[in-house]
């Protein structure tokens, strides 16, 4: 940036201070001298081109009719500062919440390339954290779904991890994994564990762009039934007592109809 340096001629005790983005110069003048100013432009060597990184932890939960996504961003600034973030948002992804400190406003452009712009009310010079919650509708199963990737625009070196999980009776097959490396599991600092979920897949990616396509289909439950009937005969009617024992496999059984 450009910093203005002021000099007041024939003055005593001159001081200059910066308040917000304004420089205030003060001094004592004699009543016998004429007030005169001179100034020059100097380069501000304290700040330069933005050098920063963005670590993204993507937590995806697969349900029968939606993908629920939580993208957690950690921005670290090594040089410079930023007061606005722009993130590319895939088509059909619904942003439901944008959470973080100092957010003044956020909006998504209506262009073919959808850009989420987040305006902050103060510049960020060190570390900043942002959480974006979204959902993606899924067509009738079986279906193939491309997992949405939020891409940070600008001078950010981006890397991160992805966790894909489900707690439903669904079979997930990874049809495409480009730019991703599968790992057994990750510690809590790198990605949150999905508790009480049946299946989880863990990936890391060294850059912003990757492709992850899921094939999703329902798993139908299989079960065996043991039946015990007791019939009691009385003078005017028959009373039947029935007992059923079900052994369920492969997927949860939600409803049983007895006829």
Shape: elongated
| Beta-strand content bin | over 45%
Straight-line N-to-C gap:
80 Å
- In DSSP terms, counting alpha (H) and pi (I) runs of 4 or more, how many helices? 0
Strands, count: 20
Cross-sheet strand order for the largest sheet: 8-11-6-5-14-17-16
SSE-based structural type: mainly beta
Structural overview:
- This protein is mainly β.
- Helix content is 0%, strand content 64%.
- The protein has no helices and 20 strands.
- The strands form six sheets. A seven-stranded mixed β-sheet has the order 8-11-6-5-14-17-16, with no helix packed on it.
- It starts with a strand and ends in a 10-residue tail after the last strand.
- 16% of the residues are buried.
Condensed summary:
By secondary structure, the protein is mainly beta.
Top keywords for this entry?
7-stranded mixed beta sheet; mainly beta; 259 residues; 0% helix; 4-stranded antiparallel beta sheet; 64% strand
Topology readout:
Blueprint lengths: L1 E7 L2 E9 L2 E8 L7 E7 L7 E12 L3 E14 L2 E7 L5 E7 L2 E6 L6 E10 L2 E11 L5 E4 L4 E2 L3 E11 L3 E9 L2 E3 L15 E7 L5 E8 L3 E12 L4 E12 L10
Parallel strand pairs: 5-14
Antiparallel strand pairs: 1-4, 2-3, 5-6, 6-11, 7-10, 7-13, 8-11, 9-10, 12-18, 14-17, 15-18, 16-17, 19-20
